[in-house]
Amino acid sequence: MTESSVVYLPSPEFVAQANVGPEIYGRADADRLAWWAEQARRLDWETEFTDVLDWSNAPFAKWFPGGKLNVAYNCVDRHVEAGNGDRVAIHWEGEPVGDARDITYAQLKDEVCKAANALTDLGLVAGDRVAIYMPMVPEAVVAMLACARLGIMHSVVFGGYSASALRARIEDAEAKLVITTDGQYRRGSAVSLKAAVDEAVADQSSVKNVIVVLRTGIDVDWADGRDLWWHEIVGQASPEHTPEAFDSEHPLFLLYTSGSTGKPKGVCQTHETFIAAAQTIAPSLDAQTAMGMTAFAVLLLASLGLGLTFGALVYEPLDAALSAFSQRMTAKLFQPACNPAAPTSASIGRR
User: Fold this and answer.
1) Among candidates 290, 276, 255, 285, which has minimal Cα distance to 319?
2) Over the chain (351 residues), what is each successive 10-residue block's mean pLDDT?
3) How many CA atoms lie less than 13 Å away from 16 in the CB half-sphere?
4) What pLDDT is recorded for position 301?
5) Measured between alpha carbons, how far is 170 from 32 in angstroms, rounded to an integer?
6) Fewest C-beta atoms under 10 Å: which of 55, 274, 280, 287?
7) Can you list the positions of beta strands (E) in the chain?
8) What is the structure's pLDDT at 327?
9) Is 285 strand, coil or helix?
């Protein structure tokens, strides 16, 4: 490996307009808990936390104990309430060419509320588990945010995984609901996803319902009483929903290993330990209100559901008012803003 002593420094003009400077490291080193408290207070809390870190039961940490908030509210509602409902939250480009949608924050809020009401009508409550097995479509984001709004743990499963891989995750989580699409586009051709779900949920006593988004229009097998069309139950639901605040340590989602070396192992991510990290996006990416930038190149691994991709591309950007998720390795952000009162959007590619 070639070593080089050449250092490329930013221009003084660039440094002057940056969100943060070198002093941020000194502040964090001097009092790391105070620094994290500052980041957390950029969120909207229904109940302020009483401490930053409870380390009394080491090595099991509790972050921001006593605090209560709602992740979906922080990602969507507060931007609408700040008068930015007409800003585009998601630019979606699908297949075939021309299949595109622009979704504003106000529209996203309505869809999330409708989905939350639909899930409630199915009997789902905080603490239940939902498996999301979908391609890169806006409904995947809506489903995730609806679950977060209700305090339901969701497990996002990569749409390229096999039926057996999906089954292992459903079985381990004891998921009550699976949300999927009839199919997805691969290299221009429509292929089924619903068939893999049917195989995965066979004889799974925990699964009560399967919600299917109409994506490709291909024929699918149907189990009356279990299977439901997204456009029928979500489309008819009310767009009015009051979010409940959950404890900072309330479970947010389940993240599973790939299972390539054995049975997939799941970890539970809580509300605040994950969403607080979103507050570091603006300084770390230096997102400014009047500049275009290519972002998340490292985080966009391949697809929704791989690694931390779905969290990094849904909760963190939406919470920080950058709003994007992508299937490709890069996403082009236009006029990103670090100010939650001025959310912007991203142009994204997906299937």
Assistant:
1) 276
2) 78 85 88 90 92 93 93 90 88 84 92 98 97 92 94 92 94 97 91 97 96 96 98 98 96 85 84 68 60 28 42 55 36 27 35 39
3) 3
4) 28
5) 38
6) 55
7) 53-57, 60-63, 68-69, 88-93, 100-104, 129-134, 153-158, 177-181, 183-186, 189-192, 209-213, 227-229, 246-247, 251-256, 266-270, 293-295, 331-334, 345-349
8) 30
9) helix
Tokens of 211: 């919600």
Q: Can you read off the two tokens belonging to residue 103?
A: 């979704």
- Please name which of 317, 301, 297 lies closest in space to residue 309, comparing C-alpha atoms: 301
Q: What is the DSSP letter of 243?
A: P
Take residue 342 and report the two structure tokens written for it.
């001025």
Structure token pair of residue 338: 């670090």
Query: Which pairing describes strands 227-229 and 53-57: parallel, antiparallel, or unpaired?
Result: unpaired
Tokens of 227: 């299977």
Core vs surface per residue 15-44: b (16+ CB within 10 A) or e: eeeeeeeeeeeeeeeeeeeebbbeebebbe
Query: Would you list the DSSP string of 160-194?
Result: TS-HHHHHHHHHHHT-SEEEEESEEEETTEEEESH
Residue carrying structure tokens 């791989």: 306
Pick from 8, 13, 12: nearest CA to 291: 13
At 225 the pLDDT is 96
Distance (Å, whole) CA 181 – CA 254:
20
- Kindly tell me the burial class for residue 58, based on how many C-beta atoms sit within 10 Å of its own C-beta (0-12, 13-18, 19 or more): exposed
User: Are 351 and 185 a contacting pair, CB within 8 Å?
Assistant: yes
Cα angle: 78, vertex 342, 270; to 5 degrees:
45
Instruction: Spell out the residues 6+ positions from residue 47 whose beta carbon is closer than 8 angstroms to its own.
Output: 66, 67, 68, 69, 245
